[in-house]
Amino acid sequence: MHDKQDESVARLIEEFLTARATRKPSPHTLEAYRRDLRTVAALVGEDAAPPLPLDRVMISALSPRVMRAAFARFAAPRAAASVHRAWSSWNAYFTFLVAEGVVAGNPMPAVGRPRTPLPQPKPLRGDDTPEELLESVAREDARQRDPWPERDVAVVALALCAGLRLSELLALRVSSVGGRVGERRVDVAGKGGRPRVVPIEPELDRVLVAYLDSRARRFGARSVRPDSPLLVDRRGEPLRRGGLQYLVDSCYRRAGIGDRVPRGARLHALRHTFATRLAEDGASAAEIMRLLGHASLASSQTYIEVTAGQQRAAVRSNRTHRVLSGLLGDILPR
């Protein structure tokens, strides 16, 4: 066991993040870890007597009692989901420290964490909205400085017809799309290091071929080498997170469907639409789990439950029910 008195929480946070980076998380995920860990550690320092700056907080100070007090302060102004995420970050941090022999045990089981409901699906609203979006994106828009409908359709179609996350889209290579005719697929580097294979239908395959052909015409055959990123910007550079988000937003604006996109689910709304339509067409929770790369069956089950609720609401909207209600008042005993 190390001499715990000499171990700075802040320095160990950076060691933990370095170790975590080998799992290839997104920069956004790593920054969320750092923010959660440093924020709670700073609260520990503020509660000390006398108060200590973050770089003077030692790992030996982090007893269950101290962590409970810090998390109580952390939780007061924040939503349950934020507290739950921070708890998970600290649990992973202490698990790392135990494995490294820095501390003897993990105090986090003694720190309460709120239960958070599973996030509800946020598909595009309107039965025909996905088709309207694709048709609009496929048309060249004279207002664009450098229209590239083949690329834009490929991005939207991959999210709508394969259910890919933003990070998964960015990680795709040209060689990620493969397989024999009739058995085409896309190999996805999924969240949490869980790879999966998503079958793609001939229509999506043709969209991707048209996009790569247009890219070769723009930038030359070398631009579509197997190890090249699948999605690029208008200069032929790999598409980045902000660029992909902006592209999807611009597609919504051009289609005039911004009011049908759920708040806080811009690109994710396309993935949720894919999953919701799977559920509507009778896919099981296990099938949805495999195709979307969910870590648990419960996440996939939410799509089936939402679909069942929508079906019941549709049945309930039938005007005949209002007629029945009036008749029942006449024929049932009071």
Describe the structure.
This protein is mainly alpha-helical and 334 residues long. The protein folds into two domains: 4-110, Tyrosine recombinase, N-terminal domain (DNA polymerase, domain 1); 129-283, hpI Integrase, Chain A. Helix content is 54%, strand content 4%. The chain is built from 13 helices and three strands. The chain has helices spanning 9-21, 27-47, 64-75, 80-99, 129-138, 149-162, 166-171, 202-219, 241-255, 268-280, 285-292, 297-316, 320-331; strands at residues 177-178, 185-189, 195-199. It has a three-stranded antiparallel beta sheet with strand order 1-2-3. Residues 310-318 have low confidence and may be disordered.
Put the structure in a nutshell.
InterPro entries: CB (IPR044068), DNA_brk_join_enz (IPR011010), Integrase-like_cat_sf (IPR013762), Integrase_catalytic (IPR002104), Integrase_recombinase_N (IPR010998), Integrase_SAM-like_N (IPR004107), Tyrosine_recombinase_XerCD (IPR050090). By secondary structure, the protein is mainly α. It has 13 helices and three strands.
